[in-house]
Amino acid sequence: MAGRSEAGPTALRIMLGAHLRRLRERAGVTRSDAGWAIRSSESKISRMELGRVGFKERDVEDLLTLYSVSDAAERERLLQLARDANNRGWWYRYHDVTPHWFDDYLGLEAAAELIRTYETQFVPGLLQTPEYTRAVAGLTSGTERTTEELDRIVALRTTRQAVLYRDPPLRLWAVVEESVLRRPIGGPQVLREQLAALLEAIQQPNVTLQIIPLSATGHAATAGAFSVLRFPQADLPDVVYLEHLTSALYLDKRDELDAYTHVLDNLTVAAPPPQEAEEQLTTILEQLD
User: Fold this and answer.
1) What residues does CATH 3.30.870.10 cover in the chain?
2) Cβ contact 213:267 at 8 Å
């Protein structure tokens, strides 16, 4: 479980859940029997093994006993992982301005080493300027936000962007429709500032941007916007993230990952190479009213 100290609680839950699943399978115990052992159900074991719920230390202890894990050091290591996984991430202080289903994404984003994303509506969140974020939040909240709430959303977004400057930094590869970069979210001046910020961002070695021109036809865009996150920990599988208005999907089955990775690969081939992004952004800036 190398890199555990750098992972947030969401990632730790997934790591511990995967480890418990392997121990259960090695012991030849069914999910139903495991659920019985912790005074719960098969579905609870399934959610635990997927990292979708928190872990009670007593439940983990009982499962380790059921799975014949007798080594004291190994038991303590996994119990400590359960304790760490139940800690709240730094983003919890913003829970009043974010939907509950977004918490898992924030945890995964903080733990990722690479995010590949395809955007059809907005500039990727990690590359947004504060005023662009403020405008997007006003459009997508479904209810009118107060100035204080918008300020907190901007603060959260700004804090999230620190992953691009940590050591080692998150690598971000974004494929964006040109229409996104011409849509005057917040007005022309906000868009100008956003495009200028993108020009600066792509100078960083860990940020790659490809822009699919308006004239492009037939590219693999039928999936809608999505992201694929990859992690440095061997216990963490890649995750596909799909966000909807009132919910989100987290996909990690092999066939699902393969399908979305294939779409991303096709998009990167269809789009002009990253080396042309600076010229494309400059042209769009010059054409703004």
Assistant:
1) 99-124+161-287
2) no
Q: How high is the pLDDT of residue 86? A: 85
CATH of domain 99-124+161-287: 3.30.870.10
> What radius of gyration do the chain's Cα atoms show?
21
pLDDT tens, 238-267? 899 998 877 888 888 889 999 999 999 999
Does the pLDDT of residue 228 top 80, yes or no? yes
Place of tokens 């009132």: 246
Please report, for residues 19, 171, 258, the alpha-carbon distance to residue 115 in angstroms, rounded to integers and kept in the order given: 24, 6, 15
- What is the CATH code of the structural domain delimited by 4-85? 1.10.260.40
Which residue, 85, 121, 125, 134, is CA-closest to 102? 125
For the entire predicted model, the pTM comes to 0.83
- Summarised one tens digit per residue, pLDDT across range 103-147 is 888 888 988 999 999 999 999 999 999 999 999 998 876 678 899
The b-or-e profile of 73-85 (16+ CB within 10 A means b, else e) is: eeeeebbebbebb
| Residues carrying CATH 1.10.260.40, the chain | 4-85
